[in-house]
Here is the input.
Amino acid sequence: MTTRRAFLTAAATAAGALGLAACGGGSSSGSGSAGTSSLRFIWWGNAVRNQATTKAIDAYVAATSGVSIKGEPGEWGSYWDKLATMTAGGDMPDVVQMDMAYVRDYGTRGALLDVAGNVDTSRFAKGTADAAKLAKGTFGVNAGVNAMTYLANPAVLQQAGVALPTDDWTWEKYAEILLAVSKAVPGTYGAANPANANNLELWLRQSGKSTYTDAGLGFAADDVASFFTYCLELQESGAVPPASLTVEDASKPLEQMLFATGKAAFTLNWSNQVTVLDKATGQDLVMLRPPSKAGDPAKAQLFYKASMLWSVSSKTKNKAAAFAFIDWLVNAPEAASILLAERGAPANTGRRAQIESGLGASDRKSFAYLATIENEVGDPLIAPLIGSSTVSKALERSINDLLFKRETPESAAKKFFDEAQSSIKV
Here is the structure.
């Protein structure tokens, strides 16, 4: 699990290196022997992902005449520096595992090809085909689908004598439940402080706003101030941990955080992380829709998020072969049987139905949650604007100032808004 701080550091470094990409010459790969398309394929992951992806490559090459693929797995911490350096030197691999946080930067600088019309997305779930759609094209194909969920630990709630909430809860009701848990079980909290970017996004969306629009920021300082006020009130009541423990908890791997160790009743996470957290807690965690301002689960303003993307380098000498491989990854039954749900639920709903029965209980629970919210999801988020890594750092600093009471909710929000506005590029 990469910490938020490591993510932001890598993002800033990679974005700086990418600025050289337009000057790079050369090609991402040679054309191989006569009649053969030779591709390079780079991705980040762990041992499980690497093994499955390598198996998928082998299956595709065995079934496809005239194609060879060299896999180049890496780790998240060094992946973006490596990719940025390759891109700047004109040596980006043909097929790239891309992240939503970077696709706008790479796409608008001409480092990626438009996938629209080159990969079949006709069976993709609503709102998942256009995850990487920008003004100049669609620069990635959804490799896996997630959605936000509030996970509840029934054992902690039972210990506290607090009933499991239903999906029609409000943010006010959520605060009451957190406080009840914290008071009932010393050393345990209702949840970690919700002061983070994902909860802020939900807060904004439920008011008809968002972090970003194609024209810039999609919110005002006052919108953030109301969210900051809510988070600070939770801390002051004791419903969530004090500031020092909040910062400490946020720096830990997922499996060592308060929720994973049974010291919190709720957490906001992505739907595919229920598998890891079921295992860590030893519980059959309950997946709930987030609280809403209206007390209506259909108005929680959830959205499907691409866990990652498949993209094609604009320097490839084998465009048709690269797109054909991506199409196979997202649409072929054999690919689905190999990759399963490690990158999230397949965007292709037919492939999702195909593999579901063979998955473990936690993955099936995640798939069921995605199906439950299918008719409620709002518009997908647009790809983060260039400069979003700086915005993320500014939010982290403002939240720390808020929780340690170096700033009021209003002053912390104003400071964040001003820095965010000066950091983004449209």
The longest helix spans residues 47-63.
